[in-house]
Specification:
Blueprint lengths: L1 H24 L9 E2 L9 E5 L6 H11 L5 E4 L1 H6 L1 H9 L3 E4 L13 H19 L8 E2 L2 E2 L4 H4 L3 E3 L8 H10 L1 E4 L3 E2 L2 H4 L6 H17 L6 E5 L5 H14 L6
Parallel strand pairs: 1-8, 2-3, 2-10, 3-4, 7-8, 9-10
Antiparallel strand pairs: 5-6
Helix pairs in contact: 2-10, 4-5, 5-7, 9-10
The protein binds zinc ion.
Length: 253
Amino acid sequence: MTVCVFIVFPVLVAAGLVFLVWSCASVSSGVWTKTVCNNLEPGKTVLTFDDGPDPSATPRILDILKENNVHAYFFVTGDRAVRYPELIRRMVLEGHTVGNHTFHHSPLFPLSGVPCMVAELQACDSAVSSALEGADVPSGVLPGARKEDHPAAKSGQKLFRPPFGVTNPDVARALVKTGHTAVGWDIRSYDTIMIKDGMSPEKAGKAVRKCVRRILRRMHPGAVVLLHDRLEYSPMLLRELMDGLRKGEWKLA
Ligand SMILES: [Zn+2]
């Protein structure tokens, strides 16, 4: 009995806590909600950009994608979609997919409760829809999903990227209520950690090359790469990455 109380019980509690933290923090755990982490477009490398649009970086990123004839997924925040609707329109008109990344991108989102989460998701959807109002959007393009490419989108589901990759039972319930499918990643670039705004161009160049080498080492068919389109050097990173992907003859979406 004593052994049970002093050894087995604490071990079980610790194991339970470790499991809980892992299942919520790991975007690929799939414990609380099914999260698409690869083969978003079967066999092709998909580039995803979070936290935009940004008035400086996003237009340059869109230019590079256009030059390379590559389609990407942008998980935008609602507050930025309200401020820069012309960039949302440009994304969709140029064939990219726009997904939901909540309205405010609050770190407290996973703890905010289902009603608040639903409001955040719906506010972001509305911001994207308003940005597209009156735009000459090609028929069949859904705000939040490129219909022809993704099975979830075909069934009318919209795509959502959880801020910081955190999911839990409340997030899962909010996604069911709002008709969203969670999209994760299987290659994290760590761009926001390795490349800082305000770095000198030389330092940034080194950091960008290191970041790209890290991504390319992990590359595989059907990879989903997590990037951001809000950093000063995000366009430099994309150019370098595009070169590496071309050299490796990776098939891009
Ligand atoms: Zn984010």
